Amino acid sequence: MAQAKIGIIGGSGLYKMDALKDVEEVHVDTPFGSPSDALILGTLDGTQVAFLARHGRNHTLLPSELPFRANIYAMKQLGVEYLISASAVGSLKEEAKPLDMVVPDQFIDRTKNRVSTFFGEGIVAHIAFGDSICANLAGVLMDAIASLNLPDVSLHRGGTYVCMEGPAFSTKAESHLYRSWGATVIGMTNLPEAKLAREAEIAYATLALVTDYDCWHSDHDSVTVEMVIANLQRNAVNAQKVIQETVHRLSQNPPSSDAHSALKYAILTNLEKAPALTKQKLELLLQKYL
Ligand SMILES: CSC[C@H]1O[C@H](OP(=O)(O)O)[C@H](O)[C@@H]1O
Ligand SMILES: Nc1ncnc2[nH]cnc12
Question: What is the ipTM of this complex?
Answer without folding.
Answer: 0.99
